[in-house]
Design brief:
The protein is α+β, with helices and mostly antiparallel strands. The chain has three helices and five strands. Keywords: Signal.
Length: about 140
């Protein structure tokens, strides 16, 4: 049999794909799930309004267990430092309301269905980042 580039490439690809499949099977067998931390972050849509030609969404941030604001503050950190840089979020604000005694996140997006989709997708991405960093559950109604 004459070995040419056209006969060697398919053989090499076949050998590599079989080796990779065996390696993936071994890696999958070793994965164990870690239990979630005993905490839950709540993110509930409260209201929205027009501001400077954009749609401003307000989301209430809460946590369980209560008592401290550790997880709400941590979510604000995720919002500012891990989500704002890549998404279409404009003018993010995360603040403590002393009257309601709760955290709020205000975010601006384009008006209309595309802006609303961007709001939901971006906020969900931030919640997923928070979940990955803390192992807390997330309960959201955006």
């Amino acid at each position: 049999m004459k070995l040419t580039l056209f006969t060697l490439i398919p053989q090499a690809l076949f050998a590599f794909s079989n080796a990779a499949a065996v390696e993936l099977d071994n890696a999958a067998a070793e994965v164990t799930l870690e239990p979630r931390a005993p905490c839950t972050l709540y993110a509930w849509w409260k209201t929205n309004w027009n501001e400077a030609g954009l749609r401003r969404y307000r989301v209430q941030i809460g946590q369980d267990p209560g008592g401290s604001n550790e997880y709400s503050e941590r979510f604000c950190d995720v919002l500012y430092h891990r989500c704002y840089s890549w998404s279409p979020i404009a003018n993010p604000q995360c603040f403590w309301d002393t009257n309601d005694r709760t955290y709020y996140a205000d975010l601006s997006f384009a008006e209309g269905p595309a802006g609303h989709s961007s709001y939901v997708d971006s906020f969900q991405h931030c919640l997923n980042n928070f979940r990955a960093e803390t192992a807390c559950d997330v309960n959201s109604n955006l």
